């Protein structure tokens, strides 16, 4: 549940940042440039955060096992590193 709350809070934050920046840009003469900068900033920061967040949800390194357990798994499974047949 915590990951969903964090995802929603950060998404709402960057969405509000983009909307407020878009509305504030009406005060200035260079509206187009300010809108572009604000929205690109919001999108890039959100994407950088989201990629990092998603990578932490499913890490590439798996759980660590003791050497005794790994050797037991290798000898138990027929298609493991140690087997009776020669490699092609």
TrEMBL record:
<dbReference type="Pfam" id="PF05493">
    <property type="entry name" value="ATP_synt_H"/>
</dbReference>
<dbReference type="GO" id="GO:0033181">
    <property type="term" value="C:plasma membrane proton-transporting V-type ATPase complex"/>
</dbReference>
<feature type="transmembrane region" description="Helical">
    <location>
        <begin position="6"/>
        <end position="26"/>
    </location>
</feature>
<dbReference type="GO" id="GO:0012505">
    <property type="term" value="C:endomembrane system"/>
</dbReference>
<keyword id="KW-0406">Ion transport</keyword>
<protein>
    <submittedName>
        <fullName>V-type proton ATPase subunit e 1</fullName>
    </submittedName>
</protein>
<keyword id="KW-1133">Transmembrane helix</keyword>
<dbReference type="InterPro" id="IPR008389">
    <property type="entry name" value="ATPase_V0-cplx_e1/e2_su"/>
</dbReference>
<dbReference type="GO" id="GO:0046961">
    <property type="term" value="F:proton-transporting ATPase activity, rotational mechanism"/>
</dbReference>
<dbReference type="GO" id="GO:0033179">
    <property type="term" value="C:proton-transporting V-type ATPase, V0 domain"/>
</dbReference>
<feature type="transmembrane region" description="Helical">
    <location>
        <begin position="33"/>
        <end position="55"/>
    </location>
</feature>
<keyword id="KW-0812">Transmembrane</keyword>
<keyword id="KW-0375">Hydrogen ion transport</keyword>
<comment type="similarity">
    <text>Belongs to the V-ATPase e1/e2 subunit family.</text>
</comment>
<keyword id="KW-0472">Membrane</keyword>
<keyword id="KW-0813">Transport</keyword>
């Amino acid at each position: 549940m915590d990951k969903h709350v964090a995802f929603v809070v950060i998404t709402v934050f960057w969405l509000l940042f983009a909307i407020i920046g878009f509305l504030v840009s009406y005060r200035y003469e260079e509206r187009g440039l300010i809108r572009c900068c604000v929205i690109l900033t919001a999108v890039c920061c959100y994407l950088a955060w989201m990629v990092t967040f998603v990578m932490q949800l499913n890490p590439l390194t798996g759980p660590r096992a003791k050497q005794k357990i790994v050797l037991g798994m290798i000898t138990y499974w027929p298609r493991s590193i140690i087997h009776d047949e020669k490699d092609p």
